Amino acid sequence: MEKFTKLKELIASIEADMEKFYNSGNGAAGTRVRKAMQDLKVLAQDIRTEVTEKKNTAK
Questions:
Q1: Closest CA to 20 of 33, 35, 7
Q2: Average pLDDT, the chain
Q3: Contact 9, 15 (CB under 8 A)
């Protein structure tokens, strides 16, 4: 559950950069968004792995 909380916090933290990139065309904000999306991908994969392990050990 801790990783899911981190995932939600990461999404919330990039909201301002998303607005800067899409509404103002700020390239640096776009770079920060891309990095955050990569971090989200890694965190989501960690959560997937954790869920699979927990599911399989419950059997």
A1: 33
A2: 94
A3: no
Please state, in angstroms and as integers, the Cα–Cα distance from residue 41 to each residue in 23, 26, 45, following that order. 24, 23, 6
Write down the pTM of the prediction.
Answer: 0.80
**Tokens 């990039």 map to which residue?**
14
Residue 11, both tokens:
């999404």
32, 41 contact by CB (below 8 A): no
Domain ranges of the chain: 2-57
Instruction: Give residue for tokens 């399989």.
Output: 56
Q: What is the pLDDT of residues 38-56, one digit of tens each?
A: 999 999 999 999 999 999 9
Question: Cα separation of 4 and 19, whole Å?
Answer: 23
